């Protein structure tokens, strides 16, 4: 059984409930009435959907991911189950705390909107396919360049600590961040191998190519900042980067090279 500990976060004025959940234990089951959402503090949680009597894994969540928000927003039964893959610690949030949290941490609202936007896009694609839309049937779920084309891109970011190379996408835009199992977003450059402290946001920034010039632009809702040669980049304002420049996402420092 989950062990619940009351914890008051006085710094932000938000009361939260921390639960310690053993591996294999269900946090909630599909069909349950949901009145709370969760933020994963430690461990891994899998999201399961019952299909023809078998629980199929939809996603594996890690530290910093949230889940269960749909039932909290809509006051409807859970559409999937959540089970601890490992021993976990989760923050349990009720409706009142959720409202205060959105006011004090707008990046949470941005991630939720992105998640809902993805679901709407998927539903739209399914409807078009059902109506026989050849265009929708042939379109990828999320636009990605082929791995071979990406490897041919001459520009790259090199991690100053380990030497890991991250090649820019062959397209005109490269999304930099970390894989997000909540929204299903896979960035073109996933900094997870170089970001042991998870200091970069899921959608941290984009690098744009315009003619022969390159620009970095920080995404809305990004935490821990973006820096070019030590100077903080303002959110939403493109800043030109040149070969040899140091570009920092959160705590991850990289060199922009050709």
Overall spatial form: globular
Q: What portion of the residues fall into strands of 2 or more residues?
A: 35-45%
Report the oligomer.
single chain
- Low-pLDDT segments, ≥5 res: 4-12, 134-140, 142-152
Number of strands: 20
**What's the overall average pLDDT, rounded?**
81
Helix content: 10-25%
Sketch the topology as an H/E string, one letter per element: EEEEEEEHEEHHHHEEEEEEEEEEE
Strand order of the largest sheet: 11-10-20-19-16-17
Major sheet details:
6 strands, antiparallel
Decide which structural class fits the backbone. alpha+beta
Distance from N terminus to C terminus (CA atoms, Å) equals 54 Å
Number of helices: 5
Radius of gyration: 20 Å
List the helices and strands and how they pair.
Blueprint: E1 3-9, E2 14-21, E3 26-28, E4 36-42, E5 45-51, E6 54-61, E7 66-67, H1 69-74, E8 81-84, E9 88-94, H2 95-104, H3 106-130, H4 134-138, H5 147-152, E10 156-159, E11 165-167, E12 173-177, E13 189-190, E14 203-210, E15 213-218, E16 226-228, E17 231-232, E18 239-241, E19 246-249, E20 252-257
Parallel strand pairs: 12-13
Antiparallel strand pairs: 1-2, 2-9, 3-8, 4-7, 4-9, 5-6, 5-8, 10-11, 10-20, 12-14, 14-15, 15-18, 16-17, 16-19, 19-20
């Amino acid at each position: 059984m989950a062990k619940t500990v009351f914890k008051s976060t006085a710094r932000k004025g938000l009361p939260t409930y921390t639960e310690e959940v053993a591996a294999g234990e269900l946090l909630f089951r599909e069909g349950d009435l949901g009145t709370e959402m969760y933020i994963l503090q430690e461990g891994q949680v899998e999201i399961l959907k019952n299909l023809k009597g078998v629980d199929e894994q939809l996603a594996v969540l890690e530290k910093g991911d949230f889940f269960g928000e749909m039932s909290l927003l809509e006051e409807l039964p859970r559409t999937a189950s959540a089970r601890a893959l490992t021993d976990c610690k989760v923050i349990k949030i009720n409706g009142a705390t959720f409202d205060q949290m959105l006011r004090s941490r707008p990046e949470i609202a941005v991630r939720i909107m992105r998640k809902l936007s993805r679901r709407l896009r998927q539903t739209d694609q399914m409807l078009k396919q059902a109506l026989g839309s050849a265009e929708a049937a042939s379109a990828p779920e999320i636009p990605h360049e082929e791995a071979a084309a990406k490897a041919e891109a001459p520009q790259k970011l090199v991690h100053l600590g380990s030497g890991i190379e991250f090649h820019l996408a062959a397209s005109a835009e490269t999304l930099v961040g970390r894989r997000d199992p909540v929204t299903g977003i896979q960035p073109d450059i996933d900094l997870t191998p170089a970001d042991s402290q998870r200091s970069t946001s899921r959608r941290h920034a984009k690098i744009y190519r315009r003619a022969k010039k390159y620009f970095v632009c920080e995404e809305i809702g990004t935490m821990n900042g973006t820096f070019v040669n030590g100077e903080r980049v303002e959110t939403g304002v493109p800043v030109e980067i040149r070969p040899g420049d140091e570009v920092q996402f959160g705590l991850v420092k990289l060199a922009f090279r050709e």
